[in-house]
Specification:
Elements lengths: L5 E5 L9 H10 L6 E5 L1 H10 L4 H11 L3 H10 L5 H7 L8 H8 L15 E7 L4 E5 L4 H8 L9 E3 L2 E5 L17 E5 L15 H23 L4 E3 L14 H7 L3 H13 L1
Parallel strand pairs: 1-2, 1-7, 2-3, 7-8
Antiparallel strand pairs: 3-4, 3-6, 5-6
Helix pairs in contact: 1-3, 2-7, 4-6, 6-7
């Protein structure tokens, strides 16, 4: 791999994106350091963690410590609460009430810097400009607000105001942003964790499952069109379809079920190099 450069795009998919850890660990194992990364939503978190210098094993350990233990989750959520009951009373309890910037601050590792300038790998994070009806590629400035904007899933989180625009989840417009790093490396790897609705086809989906499932179908439609137009060198789809977008407490199960992607990545690297 000494004469080949690699760029990685980490897709969005909520808790399913925990499977990105396998990709980072395999690249670490093979001694491959990407020259560029991109990410949407959970992919924005993973790509930023990798670009900060954290190893795959360190990211795995942090995930297990922060979201793998219910008491730690409760503690971090308490830190991300609204500043006062007065604000709860004045604003009410509504859809999209949670401040994603507070959540990101509460759950991010200390190693994650505050600015893009401090990252060790050029990083491109994707968000959607709500009123501009377009994608926004964030490459500089405040890193935490960029991650928050990329992960601001509608109906759960408030939009993020950044650079004069109201931004929401990047998965709405570009769930797998391998196109923004195209041409920056010899080999482009794209990791799709959007998944698709899975379950008993005779059972009526709940309102929440229908809403999130519709989002998955939309994202897969966007990804399929992009793949057909300009496919990446390596396209990976971890086995994460049984998990829901908010199944973060099942991190162990996500990692166990998706572990097969490790060998797939190694074989794909052998293929493109041969």
């Amino acid at each position: 791999m000494t004469d080949k450069t690699v760029a990685v795009a980490f897709g969005g998919g909520g808790a399913r994106g925990i499977a990105h850890v396998h990709i980072i660990e395999v690249l670490d194992e093979l001694g491959i350091k990407p020259v560029a990364v991109s990410g949407t939503s959970i992919g924005a978190i993973m790509s930023s963690a990798m670009a900060s210098g954290m190893s795959g094993q360190n990211i795995r350990a942090f995930l297990m410590e922060s979201i793998g233990r219910p008491t730690n989750v409760a503690s971090r959520l308490w830190k991300a609460r609204r500043p006062s009951w007065k604000s709860v009373i004045s604003e009410g309890v509504t859809l999209g009430q949670f401040n994603v910037e507070r959540i990101i601050d509460a759950f991010m590792p200390e190693e994650l810097p505050r600015s893009f300038d401090e990252l060790k790998i050029p990083t491109h994070l994707l968000a959607t400009d709500f009123y501009g009806h377009s994608q926004v590629v964030m490459k500089d400035g405040d890193l935490r607000s960029a991650i928050a904007a990329s992960a601001a899933l509608p109906a759960i989180f408030k939009s993020v105001y950044r650079d004069g625009r109201y931004l929401i989840d990047g998965g709405i417009i570009n769930p797998l942003p391998f196109d923004v790093i195209e041409g920056l490396a010899d080999i482009t790897i794209a990791v799709d964790v959007a998944g698709f609705p899975n379950g008993d086809p005779t059972k009526k989906p709940s309102t929440m499952d229908a809403a999130f499932g519709a989002s998955q179908i939309m994202m897969q439609s966007i990804i399929a069109e992009k793949i057909e137009k300009t496919p990446p060198d390596i396209f990976l789809v971890p086995d994460v379809h049984d998990f829901r977008v908010l199944d973060f407490m099942n991190a162990d199960d996500v990692l166990e079920q998706s572990a097969g992607i490790r060998e797939v990545l190694k074989k794909e690297l052998d293929r493109v190099l041969s």
